[in-house]
Amino acid sequence: MKRAIYPGTFDPFTNGHKDILMRSLTVFDEVIILVAHNRNKKPLFTAEERVEMLKETFQQESRIKADKWEGLIVDYAKANDIGSIIRGLRPTGDFEAEFQMASMNKRLYPEIETVFFITERDNYYVSSSLVKEIHKHGKVIKEFVPDTIYNWIAKKGKI
């Protein structure tokens, strides 16, 4: 069984993330969306809430799991016998940072492979940071996030 992790803060999980995830299922038998802790970001939701949102969003897809992790991604991969990391690339300068991260991960865990998916045209410009910024200024973000994520934001009183 080919398993992969799709790490990120996912705050919020966007339709761009969803596109990468769904296309990754054509390559992998199971994908674990790994909500990672990033000390440099101030999330709208706790890691636990983000995991619950993702479980609800993908409850009909048995090949998608959600988990959280505060350590190095490669340590999670080692501990769970996972050989691949999924990353999305937008035409916005992602490549250099992603290449550096993939190279370091390979150095720390030689068995790991990073698989890059190019973002589809409709999602080139979509990022969690931009979605939060648009939302903060009172604009509608429904077209940028899955319905379940939008509903969680609405329930929390963030809309």
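That was protein one. Protein two is written in the same sequence-then-structure order:
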Amino acid sequence: MKTSQIKLLCPLIIIVLLSGCWDQKEIDRRDYVLAIGFDKAEDQGIEISFLIINPEVGSVQMGGSTSEPPTEIISFKTKDIITTESFANTIVAREISFDMIRIIIVSEKLARDKDFIRWMYDAIKLKDIRRDNFLVFTKEDARKFMENNKPRLETRVHKYFENIINRGNETGLIPFSQLHTYLRITEADADLFLGIYATTEPDKDEINEMRNEDNIFAGQFKPRGKTNKTEFLGSAVFKEGKMIGKLTGEETRISYLLNNVDHATDMLASVPDPFNKNYSMGVRISQQKEADIQMNLFDRNGTIHVTLPLMIDVLSDHSMVNYNSNKENREKLKKHIEDQFEGRINNFVRKTQEEFKGEPFGWSLNARKEFSNLKDYYKFNWMEAYPNMDVKVTVKVKIIEYGRQSKLPSLHKVRD
């Protein structure tokens, strides 16, 4: 190759190598938004809030400490959320970046508004808003929720939200709630969508009697001690894009059990002890097989029969009954757990039919298989037909473990 050709190629190679770096910006020249909040404005439009994180807090380069605060919250009213990014820079010095947004927080007041879905469709048009962002619905205003949420053990707020939502999905106390799921279910117009329900405000009403510990909403847990006030518990229920109600933690778990799409992997619950009504038993619930859903949509109003197989591990036994060597006791316990779960589940199914007029279990996907084409399915109108159907859930329990203590002590000898 001639020298003149080499001299001509060298600048071209350099230009190609540097072409991907011309618009690069350093981290200290941007402000990163972790969560975006939506509230209903008093007159028109909405109030939008940005939870901006400080990337230097908790970083290795800064040694895990800095004099700057970990977060900053700004809120302002708007009638068009597309332009909010530029308006935020009237008070924020650095460029606003949505690259790290993982959570969309919406107040219950706005979620119950008929125009809420319009704002969600506008939100997905924002630059860098991902459809897999988590949707969280709060009892109070989203701005107030951001201000009151103060994690004590997580200096990096993005890790706090990631951990608490992932753990809530594993235990089944909150639903798997993402933006694209909300849009998909709303557009299908067949099932109910469940969103994460959270609050930083304790419920003022006292809970005098609770059959089950998880049969409560966010705000009713009321822990003591020096800790964060925020509670993620239960679900916000949406029909045709609008919030119509909410579910307790127990009802959210039942939705997981009857849904063959999403599964909770670490579900613990309490059931009354069959041998002593003063005690409760702690059990671990798991599913190795999906629920068997049988439908007959052409018999009068239609019938649905669900057989739900559950694997149970007994974790506590305050009545100290011997199960390992007594078959009669084991059979009584098995029947008792099946009756308990069947009662709770069927009561909740009736609630979905009578109160919500729809189901959050994704059963419409099973119903489609009963029709030869989509035209007949749409003509059937699953949403309208479901409330009048005869639905029954049968629980089949297999107990794996009865606890680690194989030989029980004599309480009379201990007391003596």
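The mean pLDDT is 84. Keep this in mind for the problem set.
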